[in-house]
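Appendix B, record 7
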Amino acid sequence: MGANRIRNPGLPQGRKFDSFTFRQFTNERQRPCGTGAHLFFGVIPIQKYQEITELEAAWIAGFIDGDGAIMLAKVGKRFRRPLVAADSADLEILEFLSEKVGGTIIKKTRAKDHHRQAYTWRLAGVGKIIGLLKRIEGHMKCDFKKQRARIIITRWNEVTPRNGFYDDLMMSRKIKFEEDFLALGVGRGRRSYTE
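Structure tokens (predicted):
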């Protein structure tokens, strides 16, 4: 698909994105809907993203170290899947991430009117996440996040059959993988990274 310039009505006027499309959400679970009291927006990648330089990889690593999370998110009733996310009140930073590595930007609900508007950037898709983590893991300084990146890079494909079928051995390996991952960083900070 070629590059499309689509004005995003959820962003300040004049903001444009190449090779991205737009859809609306009514809540943070990202159920598509055109109406709702609280309108969220997402910038959804179509195909390719720009190749990041080593300097940009180091910058992204620092941002994830400080304001991001590498987690396993619950999807359905079976196993969790990798998710990388970061919060910021500076939309330009999250736009940069979306332009470089893809992902979705979600407008968060303000608890009080005088609070600054905040946003969440999320990157899903195992292939995209592993590709990003391989680029930034060497630059990361936060020990438990670096360990989480490493365990996804080195073990995810080993414990995840491509056909989705788990025999008893693969099931036990996947459960052990999740337990090892979730044990990293438990109890750190206000937010739970294990859900």
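Remarks on this record: Residues 168 and 191 are 33 Å apart (CA to CA). Residues 1-48, 189-195 have pLDDT under 50 and may be disordered.
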